[in-house]
Amino acid sequence: MYLYQSRLKDQIIHSVKDVSVHAEGGVYTDAISGMFNVPFGYSCESIKQSIAQTLDKLPFHPKDHFYSPEWFDASAMLLKRAKMDDGALLYVNSGSEAIESSIAMALEYHRRKGNVQKRKVICRKHSYHGATLGAHSVTGRNDFSELRNSGYDTVRIHPPFPVTHDGKALETHSAADVENIILQTGPEQIACIIFEPVNHLKGMRQSPAEYLVGIRALCDRYDIVMITDEIVSGASRTGEFLNTHRYGVSPDIVALGKGISGGYYPASAMATSAKIASVFETRGAWIPYSYSHTYASNPVSIASIHTSLQVLEQVEASGQLQSLIGKAGELTRSIAANERVARIEANGLLIGLTLDERLGGGAGKKLEQLCFERKLIIRGEENWACLAPAYVMPEGTLAEVFEVLNESINQL
Ligand SMILES: Cc1ncc(COP(=O)(O)O)c(C=O)c1O
């Protein structure tokens, strides 16, 4: 018995190369970068080499006594890219742990300031934050709902964009609605708000600029820690290192994962602003707020992050990423004309679409299947689907991806 089943069909995978997957059934084009976590494709030699060399000379040593040579540089690079230069950084192994650490840090931030009653966590419906119990309890999926609310004391809000479920339009909450909820609950009880600026479920929906700016202002007004989950949207996937930077908004805490290690090693992180970090520091000494994980920031994981950030800088400086983003925008606009598509948006290299309601509630999943039969890997559920091509995908390949996507939509 397996506790996790393959989404479509179990088959043996042989190897991966560039943006292709070689498996029993043939060669597939991967248009979602693994699980949104392999931005430089599967053949990035510099990341492979730095991992291999580190494995050879420094496979593991706990962080209690020493730092690996790349540790300071990787950490400074990450904090700089997150625009939190004077803040703090915590390495963990998975995105779920980064979420749990972010919430724990927000709760502890208030406790250390003497606001012990600030314990509630505002989180969104139709969200995904991870598979551990704490991350699950702030997630807003419809499945496994019995697990929800078993971790943190949550207040659930609706997303700021219109969504449907089983053909029915659901509520939306603007920043003004969120303020009313804060006031009804009592700001003195609210520790933090957590959300994905680009919502994975329901087809990669961008939170509008005014919402992001509005939530930032609410957090400042009511001393609420703003936590953004940029595990998918970070590492420049939507054009800037953090998605919220595109709108001039900086969170207090950001959870990062997936692409920061190029997908070659399990590594995630939580970064905080100086405002949060300062509460954990007395006369230059850092006061730990939690235990750490055995493997967090081990030398191999730091090497994978360090080299990935260098590769990211190269891909950005060469103009390759910007050019592919332009191409994705152009191809997305060409699909918008398809009357079976109710909405399609390219947010950098994060592309989300909603299918016309007349195609039924399971059209997204069916689209994923149709594409898979045609050797294209995308992700689809309910009436939505999404793509997240690698930053190094050749533009011609991206054009073929959209061709297969459009033809598969027409087959629905
Ligand atoms: C938006 C978002 N947050 C958090 C997570 C959890 O990350 P991980 O699977 O590394 O624990 C995911 C994973 O898909 C995610 O998409």
Q: Into how many domains do the coordinates divide? A: 2
CATH arch. level architecture of the largest domain: 3-Layer(aba) Sandwich
Fill in the CATH topology of the largest domain: Aspartate Aminotransferase, domain 2
Strand content: 15-25%
Q: Provide the CATH top-level class of the largest domain.
A: Alpha Beta
What's the mean pLDDT score?
94
Spell out which ligands are present.
pyridoxal-5'-phosphate
Question: How would you concisely characterize the structure shown here?
Answer:
The protein is an alpha/beta fold and 412 residues long.
Provide a descriptive summary of the structure in words.
The structure is a single chain. By secondary structure, the chain is α/β, with parallel strands linked by helices. It folds into two domains: 13-30 and 318-411, Aspartate Aminotransferase, domain 1, CATH 3.90.1150; 63-315, Aspartate Aminotransferase, domain 2. The chain has twelve helices and 21 strands. The protein has helices spanning 33-36, 45-57, 71-81, 95-112, 133-137, 175-185, 209-221, 274-278, 299-317, 320-336, 363-373, 395-411, and strands spanning 13-17, 20-23, 26-30, 88-92, 120-124, 154-157, 164-165, 168-169, 190-195, 198-199, 205-206, 225-229, 253-256, 268-272, 281-282, 285-286, 341-347, 350-355, 376-377, 379-381, 384-387. The strands form six sheets. It has a seven-stranded mixed β-sheet with strand order 4-14-13-12-9-5-6, sandwiched between helices. Helix 2 (45-57) packs antiparallel against helix 9 and helix 6 packs parallel to helix 7 (209-221). The longest helix is centred in the last third of the chain and has 19 residues, at 299-317. The two termini are 33 Å apart. Pyridoxal-5'-phosphate binds next to helix 4.
